């Protein structure tokens, strides 16, 4: 079927974190929310159909992931990433952040230092700090051709500290990099050389723009596979975040057993999450193809609009995701002034770059997973605010 991504879906009044908490988060109700990574598109028709069929049954008791769900995940990874999974490697959790907490608790001790690469997804910071560990930041380097890893700094930190864990964001949120095989191989070898377990958050791996290819970190070699924990979900790809169901892929038996011991009780997703994920992975390929074509159009429209109407703002097209990382440093505003301008004058609800740690100052993250007319409205609001400014 053909999906209509131009359709405006009214989400206010649905207890939407994105749409119904504007006053609480931004201090006013009339902002256009383009912050949290939650698309404004309808879910794939096979997902809606599968959930409706299950709701017709009058009981919603305890459930478990069926064999067919494992098979759908295994087929998805084999077809798209050439990674042959075993069923027992797959463990379910109630969200990737939930899995991150479990992994940090299971594979590090209070007081340990854990490497991340800012500017990066804010829960990487909060998870480490909330569990009494310390952030050891290997900040990405910004250049004319985009972001790259700081290899000298990474090797120095791995050599000079006892680092049990590194958390990789692949593809990277918010800068949108798809790491090359060469980059991933170099990083993985450094981790192997220094006995550092690698947690690879690959939740955005399906959202590939411009024919970019994602390399699943664990496919680099059997040695890397045994020392890598992969976090994944269908939630970003198919807009299922509210169903709070994700998975962890752990090929090594001992690491997997340890993760299970630390996983809180039956914290393994839920009935409707399982149903939606299976339908998405087994029948959602056509939806994803159409979605990525539309998102590429959104990215180009937004980038061209900024270049034409707001040249003081800079944006590089990302390799993946539906998130645009916009450089507003040329405005010369403090973080507080920039937030006030965007919120009170442009009436836009965005993610401030400071949330993503060092290197994020002066940037804003825009969620372009929405109908194009919403993006056009955002550009108009932004243009009007900067003209008044």
Annotation keywords:
389 residues, alpha/beta, Aspartate Aminotransferase, domain 1, Aspartate Aminotransferase, domain 2, 2 domains, 7-stranded mixed beta sheet, 4-stranded antiparallel beta sheet, 15 strands, 14% strand
Q: Approximately how much beta-strand content do the residues carry?
A: 5-15%
| CATH C-level of the largest domain | Alpha Beta
Mean pLDDT across all amino acids:
97
Give the overall shape.
Answer: globular
Question: In the CATH classification, which architecture of the largest domain applies?
Answer: 3-Layer(aba) Sandwich
The description of the largest β-sheet is: 7 strands, mixed
Helical proportion, percent range: 40-55%
What is the domain total for the residues?
Answer: 2
Report the radius of gyration as a whole number of Å.
21 Å
- Might you state the CATH topology name of the largest domain? Aspartate Aminotransferase, domain 2
The CATH homologous superfamily name of the largest domain equals: Type I PLP-dependent aspartate aminotransferase-like (Major domain)
SSE pattern, N- to C-terminal: HEHHEHEHEEEHEHEHEHEHHHEEHEEEH
| Structural category | alpha/beta
Please report the total strand number as a whole number: 15
Instruction: Please report the distance between the alpha carbons of the first and last residues.
Output: 46 Å
Strand order, sheet with most strands: 2-10-9-8-7-3-4
Protein architecture, described:
The protein is an alpha/beta fold and about 400 residues long. The protein folds into two domains: about 20-45 and about 285-389, Aspartate Aminotransferase, domain 1 (Alpha-Beta Complex); about 50-285, Type I PLP-dependent aspartate aminotransferase-like (Major domain) (Aspartate Aminotransferase, domain 2, 3-Layer(aba) Sandwich). Helices cover about 40% and strands about 15% of the residues. It contains 14 helices and 15 strands. It has helices spanning about 20-25, 45-55, 65-80, 95-105, 120-130, 150-160, 180-195, 220-225, 235-240, 255-260, 270-285, 285-310, 335-345, 370-389, and strands spanning about 30-35, 90-95, 115, 135, 140-145, 145-150, 165-170, 195-200, 230, 245-250, 315, 325, 350, 350, 365. The chain has a seven-stranded mixed β-sheet, sandwiched between helices. A four-stranded antiparallel β-sheet has the order 11-12-15-14, covered by helices on one side. It has a two-stranded parallel ribbon with strand order 1-13. Helix 7 (about 180-195) links the parallel strand 7 (about 165-170) and strand 8 (about 195-200). Helix 4 packs across helix 10. The radius of gyration is 21 Å and the shape is globular.
């Amino acid at each position: 079927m053909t999906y209509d991504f131009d359709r405006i879906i009214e989400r206010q009044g649905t207890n939407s974190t994105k749409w119904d908490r504007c006053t609480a988060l931004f201090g006013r109700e009339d902002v256009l929310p383009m912050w949290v990574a939650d698309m404004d598109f309808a879910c794939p028709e096979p997902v809606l159909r599968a959930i409706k069929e299950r709701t017709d049954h009058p009981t919603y008791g305890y459930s478990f992931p069926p064999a067919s769900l494992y098979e759908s995940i295994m087929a998805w990874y084999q077809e798209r990433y050439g990674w042959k999974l075993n069923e027992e490697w797959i463990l379910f959790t109630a969200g990737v952040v939930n899995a991150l907490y479990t992994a940090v608790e299971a594979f590090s001790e209070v007081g340990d230092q854990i490497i991340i690469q800012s500017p990066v997804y804010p829960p990487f910071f909060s998870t480490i700090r909330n569990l009494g560990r310390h952030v050891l930041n290997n900040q990405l380097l910004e250049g004319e051709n985009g972001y790259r890893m700081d290899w000298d700094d990474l090797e120095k930190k791995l050599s000079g500290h006892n680092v049990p864990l590194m958390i990789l964001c692949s593809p990277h949120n918010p800068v949108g990099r798809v790491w090359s095989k060469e980059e991933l191989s170099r990083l993985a070898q450094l981790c192997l050389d220094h006995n550092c377990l690698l947690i690879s958050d690959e939740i955005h791996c399906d959202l590939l723009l411009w024919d970019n290819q994602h390399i699943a970190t664990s496919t680099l070699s059997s040695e890397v596979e045994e020392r890598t924990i992969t976090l994944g979900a269908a939630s970003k790809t198919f807009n299922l975040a509210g169903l709070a169901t994700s998975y962890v892929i752990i090929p090594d038996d001992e690491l997997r057993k340890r993760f299970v011991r630390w996983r809180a009780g039956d914290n393994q997703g839920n009935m409707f999450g399982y149903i939606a994920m299976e339908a998405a992975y087994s029948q959602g390929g056509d939806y994803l193809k159409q979605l990525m074509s539309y998102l590429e159009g959104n990215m180009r429209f937004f980038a061209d609009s900024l270049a034409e109407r707001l040249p003081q703002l800079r944006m590089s097209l990302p390799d993946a995701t539906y998130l645009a990382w916009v450089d507003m440093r040329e405005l010369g505003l403090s973080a507080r002034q920039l937030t006030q301008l965007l919120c009170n004058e442009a009436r836009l609800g965005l993610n401030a770059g400071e949330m993503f740690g060092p290197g994020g100052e002066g940037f804003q993250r825009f969620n372009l997973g929405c109908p194009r007319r919403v993006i056009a409205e955002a550009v108009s609001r932004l243009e009007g605010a900067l003209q008044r400014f």
